[in-house]
Specification:
By secondary structure, the protein is α/β, with parallel strands linked by helices. It is built from 35 helices and 26 strands. It is about 40% helix and about 10% strand. The longest helix is centred in the first third of the chain and has 50 residues, at about 70-115. Belongs to the glycosyltransferase 1 family.
Length: about 1050
Amino acid sequence: MAGNDWINSYLEAILDVGPALDDKKSSLLLRERGRFSPTRYFVEEVITGFDETDLYRSWVKAQATRSPQERNTRLENMCWRIWNLARQKKQLEGEEAQRKAKRRLERERGRREATADMSEDLSDGEKGDAVSDISAHGDSTRGRLPRISSVDAMETWVSQQKGKKLYLVLISLHGLIRGENMELGRDSDTGGQVKYVVELARALGSMPGVYRVDLLTRQVSAPDVDWSYGEPTEMLTPRNSENLMDEMGESSGAYIIRIPFGPRDKYIPKELLWPHIPEFVDGALNHVMQMAKVLGEQVGGGQPVWPVAIHGHYADAGDAAALLSGALNVPMLFTGHSLGRDKLEQLLKQGRLSRDEINATYKIMRRIEAEELSLDASEIVITSTKQEIDEQWRLYDGFDPILERKIRARIKRNVSCYGRFMPRMAIIPPGMEFHHIIPHDGDVDGEAEGNEDHPTVPDPPIWSEIMRFFSNPRKPMILALARPDPKKNITTLVKAFGECRPLRELANLTLIMGNRDGIDEMSSTNASVLLSVLKLIDKYDLYGQVAYPKHHKQSEVPDIYRLAAKTKGVFINPAFIEPFGLTLIEAAAHGLPLVATKNGGPVDIMRVLDNGLLIDPHDQQSIADALLKLVADKQLWAKCRQNGLKNIHLFSWPEHCKTYLSRIASCKPRHPQWQRSDEGVGTTESDSPSDSLRDIQDLSLNLKFSLDGEKNGTGSNDASVGSEESTADRKSKLENAVMTWSKGVLKDTRKTGLVEKLDQNTSSSKFPPLRRRKHIFVLAVDCDSLDDLLDVTRKVFASMEKERNEGSVGFILSTSLTISEIHSFLVSGGLNPEDFDAFICNSGSDLYYPSVNSENRPFVIDFYYHSHIEYRWGGEGLRKTLVRWAASITDKKDKNEEQIVTLAEKLSTDYCYAFKVQKPGMVPPVKEVRKMMRIQALRCHAVYCQNWTRLNFIPVLASRSQAIRYLRVRWGVDLSRLVVFVGECGDTDYEELLGGMHKSVILRGACSSASNQFHTGRSYPLSDVMPSDSPNVAQTPENCSSADITASLESLGLIRS
């Protein structure tokens, strides 16, 4: 107990307090009455910070116990629990303080190193001062909301959009999503985000220049949810379609597209969706490719119409959007809604759960990694408030406001950033539909009598449901609308109302706390908050003054706002932290003045609307004073109402969408390069209905490679790709490579006529053979040696010998080896390049096909794949940083401090920097390597391979799994007919190979158990992302034979016995 004297004093006071515990008149005002109860204060004030509801219940039981001996026993047990809780919290706080200090030092060091690399010609702005009108987040500082402020301006903007036919894709995976009668509050996953994404999709679909919007979500066909969530497609009816008739087309508008993934008959929480996200990506890829072709036929002149952007909402959809946008090579946007690092900090502060327990419950580390990947891949991150940027996003490795300002300034001056990139933070508050809202004047009894032209409208049913609680329903209504969650701070509001007699005399309080049937059926946390509210109502005798209805429909929420406005009431949001506060905008649109927390989004909202007061949510008196001021001062109330109605248009959906589309227009367009119309690529008849994108008119995709990727900069921020010298060298290398291939492969393939452009009479299936296979087997087994890999290859070949000879089965070799190492492997094993249809090399950064003339030039490289993955590739700037980092990794125990990691020049390529690892046990884990890269704003994918003896750095959206999706996009490979062979463990990209629409066969015993150390170094357990009990995964026995492999394929339904 040393060092915990304050705990000792509380324990002694609790045990010695005696009869004061039974004083029924005691309250929080005991201090004023001279009878302060340390027990009550400690339990009700101090322990509430721990969210220890069980402890509070123990206190209630102890207080109700009549026997002094039993009561003292209960209190003594409580004392030890309190002491242990406080000790645990202190320990956690100490550990967290150490982590924060370490993180601060790492960020400062990374910032220094990045600044040193970009130290040439620093401007004043880059040194820390403001740069013109560009803020630290890339937004104009001349106005908080750079939006349309007049009808004329909107009409001008609308006229500029005519003729555009944009296709947008939004992704929101968790919760139950439908266009009408949304079940908001049904569970923690079906909340404000569901409403936001549906209304955003609907509003975008009504905007000029937007032809189609798809909102992709999960298809749920579970017995415990409504059948509508199992419908594959749902059209979102526009709210106002008067101006849309001219732009309507066969497939135009906004749609909810439900993609089946995960358990088919279960509705599962978002924490359990992570293993199934690759399956969603594959399904979404199929949908987008099909829709691009359909839209191309309708409005694209026969060329596919690719999405101009893919927008992920929340971490799970951000992870999916990063993979999908990478597979399609289109820009990505991201909205976090609620951020994992912020939630982790809040939970650690409560002291109730350890970091491991938090991760086990919420899968928080996987969520954080998804958010970091979203920062890596996003062009724009959309936030609701500046607070979200300053206090939440700055917690992430991938975003540093100071470094972002330096990079943004250099981009503006067209100066190299040496391979560094930072997403743009755009503040765009959510929108609302206001055209159907008509603010009413008058009070409850002041309605005009009806006549024939304007008959009296009956009061909505929800009004009587609320009014029945009040003894005097004509008093102004203080309205709070929030679920019973501790962070919503409803209990403090009730306390403030109960202890302020003038406020009770002037107003009623209405609490809309979601829907419930019985308290016992609620979650323990929500039930605890509701019970606390009911006890406070009883304590302050607020019967007849507080309403808390059990049920309300989402469609009745506007009626609730109208009732509060008719009584000249006030809307309050007292949450401890409010990321945005959409209910504040809704209330203001109905003419309600606002009282809101000063923490978070309400600060920005109040600055624009100027229609209320900000309060400290921890200050009970501040809440009471603000409410009393607005209710008592009718002139102030009227002024706030008028200001809100005058400025509310700044939060309309058209305003939001205009700003949103303007941001997208600032992104550099990207799409699959071989589909450019300027290359004169025509279309051919497909071999099958599913072959929607088999564009092989230009068979010289690898040989006739142009440098458009270099000239046009397919990645964003082209000024920062590298120095002029390195770019020139890179172009020279590529030109030489093309010429080399041309002299070898081109010369020989011309004899067969394959290089010439195919006409309509030429068979479209000559190249590549991938397109005519019934099944494709991908060998992605990360064996310990080439001999083991050869053994596995022969076994897989033997398992399908008949089909292999017939040509119905093709093979792809997917590995971390270079193409030279693969060639040596084939020669030594007596294999031919033609035995495989493709070679995925260097951990997914290079893609080769077997050449027609395999004697001189056995392989043909797919240069278009490079243009597909080069987004945010740091090039020479990244290489220099990696070399410097490798030099710092030394053996501290060795006298000479031998360097452990060294650059392997011969193994490196333009899109893969390979490093040899001398002492595998002493290198930092992959999560630390990724962290180091992100802190310096370098976006790449680090992969440990070959039993920790090699470390490959490749583009951030390149991987072996992404290369497979590229084959789907480029050649129309059906992913459901793909089989991926892996070992029980493998390289650090192993997890990505198991999930998806394809089948997987795990060859037990094929890889060394030493590879398992790869996965202990990740930030989350491998089990968080591995699909369990998946029907698409089969395992062979240990040290399997070809017959065992055949049996596994039979169990997957690929072949018949």
